[in-house]
């Protein structure tokens, strides 16, 4: 599986494609010498006639991807995809093994056993993270990953139907971590051993992760996201989903520190209490980060997390950062995964920066360089 993204790039033009439940996000990069240039970036909502709580249909996804490709002026057909959170199992474990072969075997067995997928439907991989010394024993700190093979096939099929050629399939939070690390390194090239948290607020779910250097050390997905705000508006005004979503996205909408969403309607401003949603999100972030820190000895700098970077489409809700801070979550910033990149001068592309946070996973997918000899997932992609 493609976690490291550090090996050589095979495709100088490529698209990172993040298919969500609400929208598809694509970023095309081009290599010019050692530089990567953002050639195109586009987000298109997936039109769903059914209940917003149901997964979008393959037809609706393919339609959104095709629209994204044409309206965004994408040129490449090589694509790197991210697996949806429910198709991936991730676990961080200390495994004891006296040789690389034994470690390989132990890790694979542990991944198959832990994953909530049928053993016949699972692709597994692992990555050894920085060693944590345990005196006299060969203990390795390992990230296990297992993915549903049938979901990978479904993703490959979707890409194929949209006229794209998959190069690799990656894990969303791993791609997002790569993007955050890249931005951090551009900002301050000194390596820091301090773990950093990021929180990707999607439509239905939010993924809270901790990275150290460029390694993902923790990730948990919780069922709260931008859709919960839409649901609150629809409930408060007794209107349908589409209309509520439109209101949420309109300029005047903002979340106050006390978690009241202020929206502009024809009758004037209306307050929609959202403390339940913000409270749940804040609690989940705090609980996840506490869990991460609890794995280290009290006071150890290894477990002390800096403030959290917010990302994902849900993070574009004006005021969400401050409302979370009011609940005691230390927010560092809202991610800008395009920062430091040269952006093609085509019309329309410059303004994409306003929605940058939504592209974090797509950028991470596009900037990884995937080597095609190491993984089952890539073999499947190559065979598609
Ligand atoms: N400008 C904006 N202001 C407020 N909310 C926004 C804005 N743009 C997008 N959103 C919200 O962000 C969410 C979509 O974010 P994103 O594209 O990251 O989700 P997704 O990847 O499709 O969903 P998921 O990851 O949960 O499957 C939706 O709830 C959408 O309403
Ligand atoms: Mg998403």
Short description:
The chain has 384 residues and is α/β, with parallel strands linked by helices.
Domain unit count? 1
Using only CA atoms, what is the Rg? 21 Å
H/E series? EEEHEEHEEHEHEEEHHEEEHEHEEHH
Share of residues in helices:
25-40%
How can the largest sheet be summarized?
6 strands, mixed
Bound molecules: adenosine-5'-triphosphate, magnesium ion
Task: Explain this structure.
This protein has 384 residues and is α/β, with parallel strands linked by helices. The protein is built from ten helices and 17 strands. It has helices at 58-71, 100-114, 149-161, 172-187, 226-237, 241-249, 275-294, 320-326, 360-367, 376-383; strands spanning 13-19, 23-32, 35-45, 78-83, 88-96, 122-128, 139-148, 165-171, 196-201, 206-212, 215-222, 254-255, 260-265, 268-273, 308-311, 331-334, 342-343. A six-stranded mixed beta sheet has the order 8-4-1-2-3-17. The protein has a five-stranded mixed beta sheet with strand order 11-10-9-15-16, sandwiched between helices. It has a three-stranded antiparallel beta sheet with strand order 5-7-6. The radius of gyration is 21 Å and the shape is globular. The structure holds adenosine-5'-triphosphate (ATP) and magnesium ion (MG).
Name a few traits of the molecule:
384 residues, alpha/beta, Nucleotidyltransferase, domain 5, six-stranded mixed beta sheet, five-stranded mixed beta sheet, 10 helices, 17 strands, 32% helix, globular, disordered N terminus, binds adenosine-5'-triphosphate, binds magnesium ion
């Amino acid at each position: 599986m493609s976690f490291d993204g550090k090996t050589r790039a095979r495709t100088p033009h490529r698209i990172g494609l993040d298919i969500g439940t609400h929208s598809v996000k694509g970023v095309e990069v081009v290599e010019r010498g050692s530089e990567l240039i953002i050639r195109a970036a586009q987000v298109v909502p997936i039109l769903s006639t059914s209940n917003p709580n149901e997964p979008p249909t393959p037809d609706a996804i393919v339609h959104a991807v095709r629209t994204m490709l044409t309206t965004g002026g994408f040129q490449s057909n090589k694509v790197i995809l991210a697996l949806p959170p429910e198709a991936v199992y991730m676990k961080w474990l200390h495994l004891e093994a006296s040789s690389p072969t034994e470690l390989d075997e132990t890790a694979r067995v542990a991944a198959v056993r832990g994953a909530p997928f049928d053993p016949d439907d699972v692709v597994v991989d692992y990555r050894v993270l920085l060693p944590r010394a345990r005196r006299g024993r060969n203990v390795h700190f390992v990230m296990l990953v297992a993915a549903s093979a049938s979901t990978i096939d479904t993703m490959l099929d979707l890409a194929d139907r949209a006229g794209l050629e998959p190069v690799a399939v990656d894990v969303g939070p791993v791609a997002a971590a790569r993007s955050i690390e890249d931005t951090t390194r551009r900002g301050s090239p000194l390596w820091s051993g301090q773990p950093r948290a990021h929180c990707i607020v999607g439509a239905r779910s939010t993924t809270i992760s901790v990275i150290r250097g460029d390694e993902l050390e923790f990730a948990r997905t919780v069922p709260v996201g931008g859709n919960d705000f839409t649901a609150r508006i629809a409930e408060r005004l007794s209107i349908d989903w589409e209309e509520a979503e439109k209101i949420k996205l309109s300029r005047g909408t903002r979340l106050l520190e006390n978690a009241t969403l202020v929206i502009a309607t024809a009758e004037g401003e209306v307050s929609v209490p959202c403390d339940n949603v913000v409270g749940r999100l804040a609690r989940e972030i705090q609980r996840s980060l506490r869990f991460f820190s609890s794995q280290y000895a009290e006071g150890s700098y290894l477990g002390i997390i800096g403030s959290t970077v917010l990302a994902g489409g849900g993070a574009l809700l004006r005021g969400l950062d401050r409302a979370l801070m009011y609940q005691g979550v230390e927010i560092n910033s809202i991610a800008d995964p395009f920062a430091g990149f040269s952006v093609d001068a085509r019309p329309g592309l410059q303004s994409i920066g306003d929605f940058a946070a939504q592209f974090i996973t797509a950028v991470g997918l596009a900037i990884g360089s995937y080597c095609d000899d190491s993984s089952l997932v890539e073999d499947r992609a190559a065979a598609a």
